[in-house]
Amino acid sequence: MVRAALWLLTEVGEGRIFTKAELRAAFPDVAQIDRRIRDLRDHGWRIDTSRDDPALKQEEQRFVSRGAEVWIPGQAKAPKHKNGLTAAQRQKTFERDSYLCRSCGIAAGEAYGDDDLTQAVLNIARRKVLLADGAEEYQLVTECKRCGSGSTDREVDLGALIELVEDLSSMERRILAGWIAADQRMPEPIDRLWGLYRTLPEEARKAVASALDDASADS
Fold first, then answer.
1. Per-block mean pLDDT, blocks of 10 residues, the chain (219 long)
2. What is the rounded CA–CA span in Å between residue 165 and residue 150?
3. By three-state DSSP, how is residue 64 classified?
4. How many CA atoms are closer than 13 Å to the CA of 184, on its beta-carbon side?
5. Cβ distance 115 to 99 under 8 Å?
6. β-strands 60-65, 16-19: how paired?
7. Residue 157 has what pLDDT?
8. Maximal CA-CA distance, the chain
9. Nearest to 157 by CA among 124, 183, 128
């Protein structure tokens, strides 16, 4: 892994693309050099594949940025989340997330429906979560391949999110609680009204605005 890190720094360079063939040619004596490259990601090195960056070809990877200096004693210690997921962990996460992408709600095998006929593929992502007490941990979440593209370094500040929830008005909290209970956002009447208004021609929009002004004056 150390040799792979130094090769990326000295031979490839940050922001540059390399291929699997170039990698294997540089390390002909290492049977699993691809794995050593993947291990670097667990130490903060960002190395994108075609899954992360759609502009890359299947055989290409991009060395985006360096992470921990793994050649220094102690820096190459494996992080707690390094081990791969077991089949049981994957199945439990899929079941907990109702076999849906938590970002866009699509199910495995469904087409996206926006002129993209590609069928969704679901993966399990490790999301870095900053807890309210300042601690960090990695939690599992279901994502489709499209939503997971380029999200390898995404993290959630749970403490800040909870503070935003606490700052909501009582009405906003009830609305949010309803969405959470249903696990989906149910459009409010004003949302539907706004959607209809946005489709109106200019003259009709002016008529609605005028009626709103009149109603506000009467109240």
1. 93 93 92 85 86 83 90 69 74 92 89 76 88 79 84 76 91 89 81 87 91 84
2. 28
3. strand
4. 8
5. no
6. antiparallel
7. 87
8. 83
9. 128
- Measured distance CA(119)–CA(8) in Å, rounded: 34
Question: What is the token pair recorded at 152?
Answer: 């390898």
| CA 96/CA 62 separation, integer angstroms | 33
Quote the CA–CA distance of 77 and 148 in Å, as a whole number: 27
**The two three-digit tokens of residue 25, written as one number:** 């040619």
- Model pLDDT, residue 87: 85
Phi first, then psi, for residue 8 (nearest 5°) are -60, -45
Tokens of 174: 């009830």
135: left (phi over 0), alpha (psi -120 to 50) or beta: beta
pLDDT on residue 13: 94
